[in-house]
## 1
Amino acid sequence: MKTRTWILLLSALLILSLAGSLLSLRQSQAAYARITSHGRVIAVLDLAVDQEYTVDTPQGGHNVITVRDGSIAVTQANCPDGYCMARGYCSGGMQIVCLPNRLTIQFSDQGQIDGVSG
């Protein structure tokens, strides 16, 4: 094959793979956020309502979770690395995790706690 054919073929494959990656990374906006601490669901927050929620654990963990304009973020935490705060405001997609304080925030379209997860 000629060089031009190879270039066109590789360009087409690159464009297809980038398009597939963008479609898979696209985040859908959730309606609720389920907050779990030490494996237990402790709250389900409506992302349509601006609010602040504080989680204190018996082990000394402290997280302040803020809901604003349909998004949620960990705005304060006493964990040593601060990765949960660096994630910023999110409205869907991958969960927010504070591993040292054993806190997770998962996105959901349902407001109630189902029988499987807690």
Note: The domain at 32-108 is CATH 2.60.320.10 (mini-chromosome maintenance (MCM) complex, domain 2).
## 2
Amino acid sequence: MENKKIEKIDFTHEALEEHYYQCEFAKCYLSDMKISKVIFEECTFKECNFSLSKVHAASWQNVVFEGCKMTGMDFTNSNKFSLSLEFNDCILSYALFTGMNLKGTRFSNSDLQNVDFADADLTNSAFVNCDLTSTTFQHTNLEKADLTSARNYSINPFNNRLKKARFSRYGLEGLLAGTGVEIID
């Protein structure tokens, strides 16, 4: 399917096509689905619900999510080829990105509480005004990542790659958690 606006479709009752190119999805329901072998290329999802969905070999090429609910969504088995994602004003709590190559991914004004980024590559990624409460960064590459406006993160500098990553001085406490250093006001 190409250059279509797809609105208010409940994909738990409608089958997904094999390939979407330059399509806009608005207020669609894709919750608790297995999204398998679908190609989304240069697509935008606005106010869609993907909660608890699992991805199996689906391709996300230059895909933007705006105002989407993606609680518990599992991206880990996405097609790794040409993966390019952007998230704006999304709820991504409990989402899984374990071991994924997310270089240059932009997360803006999004709730990323309890997200798993273990073993992920987030080089050059940006977390703009995002809540990272209880998010897992374990053996994660955060080189050149921008976390200057992110909040509530806890990142162990000994277990993650942080070369040239950017942090606000007000967030430095999140880099010292788990190191045994005490911060006194």
Note: The helical segments are 173-176.
## 3
Amino acid sequence: MTNYMYSASVPVFQQMLDSLDQLLAKAEAHVEARKLDPQALLQARLYPDMFPLLRQVQIACDFAKGVSGRLAGAEQPVFDDSETSFADLRALVARTLDFLGGLEPAAFEGSDTREIVLRPGTPKERKLAGQAYLLSYGLPQFFFHATTAYALLRHSGVEIGKRDFMGSY
């Protein structure tokens, strides 16, 4: 039997990151076909105080690897967030998927009650049981950034829809 904490995290992140990779591929094709400056999309924001597309993708990847890694008790790879192109972002998604693919379901045993400490040693430190961390914090954060990336691309005229967002399931 597969651990439910694994099932509720890694496969969900993998599905949505696969989708995000395809969205980025369509965005890159959109830019090339219309001879647009790629930075116009990579730096697109829905509002001036929001992160641009580039950062939304980076944060989505950070949450996918961070949440999964913490729950599995695995050392997480450090990505330097130096991406500047669609190719760079797609490589980041691929590295994140590689990390997730290496996590074993057995590593998630007991992670529902494992204490997860957010922002340790700071005034914003917060302790959550693994299940609350995944369901009430990690997944909502990940989906916020993945959805915002989708919305930025859609708003910018990339021909994508809900099926593209959902990916293969």
Note: The mean pLDDT is 96.
## 4
Amino acid sequence: MVVLNKIYTRTGDDGSTALGTGERRKKYDLRVAAYGTIDEANAAIGVARLHTVHDGELDAALARIQNDLFDVGADLCTPGKGKGPEGARLTVTDKQVEWLETEIDRFNAALQPLRSFVLPGGSPASAHLHLARTICRRAERLIAELKDQDDSKERPGESVSSEVLKYVNRLSDFLFVASRYANSRGAGDVLWKPGENR
């Protein structure tokens, strides 16, 4: 369990931060950027939840995702097969990925098929979920790059679990479906009209 008695430590004043293993890295390190972007996505979901509180099912799913995103961050901040200070390494599981897939299917079943791309907007909840989706996609790109570094042996020992990459990929899909669901089950979607303003 994490215990935070003191919020500032001054250890980051030199531009470095500690990974879950205790190793110090620059704050612009790709691994730090990856889990930092996951944190950003989590914050965006928190803002979206200010507007989903009236929808118990959607809000409960988002609450679970926020908790799971801390698991994603814990997995990412511990490179290789290293363990955290307290022992076992926390990793994302296939079960968490499968739950997301089930939720995507469940919420998507209530939506009409799309006939065009969706523009972010329509309602505050939907717009914030779209923002969270785009942040999640950015995190996915960083995680994929980190994984490729390890695969190419540019920086061996940087391994990223396949479950993390799958989870973040499914999460962006979930957030897209959730953004439509939050728009009156898709009825309030703002659709792209190709070439309309030429």
Note: The first helix runs from residue 30 to 49.
